[in-house]
Design a protein that fits this description.
single chain; mainly alpha; 434 Repressor (Amino-terminal Domain); 69% helix
Length: 105
């Protein structure tokens, strides 16, 4: 098993646990048999590309966010970025200053 395959399996598990759902529930929500996600996370199979995109969509993240191992909780980052898009420049600058202040602490 390659490092990339292992990463995909572990990332799906991480995202699933953060969402608080079982492998069965994720399989069901994606329209598959109850063992679908188990087969992926146990190393028996990998999702085809179309299903990988469906998994990303399910977790409301982009494929690049899925593969960014520096993002422990990409759903939160994604929601924050979407919220920032609705703000004017002065509010975004205020939030950036706040982030910088917290980062230094």
């Amino acid at each position: 098993m390659s490092k990339c395959e292992q990463f995909v399996r572990e990332r799906i598990t991480q995202l699933r646990l953060q969402k608080g759902i079982s492998e069965y529930q994720l399989s069901y929500d994606l329209g598959h048999s109850r063992s679908y996600i188990y087969n992926i996370t146990s190393g028996k199979s990998l999702p085809p590309l179309s299903q990988f995109f469906a998994i990303c969509e399910y977790f409301d993240i982009t494929p690049s966010e899925f593969f960014d191992d520096k993002l422990a909780n990409p759903q939160l980052i994604h929601k924050a970025v979407e919220g920032l898009k609705n703000l004017d420049d002065s509010d975004v600058l205020m939030i950036l200053n706040f982030i910088n202040r917290l980062s230094k602490a």
